Amino acid sequence: MPHTYDCADADARRKGLAAAARAVRGGRLVVLPTDTVYGLGCDAFSAASVRALLKAKNRGPDMPVPVLVGSWSTIDGLVLGVPRSARQLIEAFWPGGLSLVLPHAPSLSWDLGSTKGTVMLRMPLHPVALELLRDVGPMAVSSANISGSPAPATAAGARQQLGDSVAVYLDGGDTGEPVASTVVDLTGDDPLILREGAVTTEDVAEVLGREVLTA
Q1: Sorting pLDDT into bands at 50, 70 and 90, what band is 62?
Q2: How far apart are CA 116 and CA 212, in angstroms?
Q3: What range does the domain containing 93 cover?
């Protein structure tokens, strides 16, 4: 039976984060608050856990699962190389609502879906999420909803959809009106915005000092 921890209470938050860390390391799923919506997460390096995440969402591997990190430096061990443009965007917008698509390091043994050798990375601006990520390392995290249903802004909303498929629910309060992260693809010669969300195209272009393409 999953347990929900109220992270507004210091003791419950401590216990919840410990329980969530144990669950992730044990290959189970957790729900955590982020700065956009509630996320359904697991160990990014456990293929079985990622499959369980996709099953819980009733989604196939054709939509790869993004990876959340707890620090700027974590990205160095996950990608083939960090271009200057990625450094500029990380310094400007992380933690926050910007996701970067980069070629992943070929040595990594993970299966996030049909990624075609890439990984989408983001550092969320939420203290509960960051504390968990800094404890357990990179997590595969997707919105905590059944595919095709609205992404939840509360832990209760996530539990209503996902139920017993999740081991631990971390309740960080209402995340507010859902705002998707902006997704920038840096795998080509020119930066390409795949989705505009929390960060505007103009903001990205200003930081990079160049025009950016949009999908």
Answers
A1: confident
A2: 22
A3: 3-214
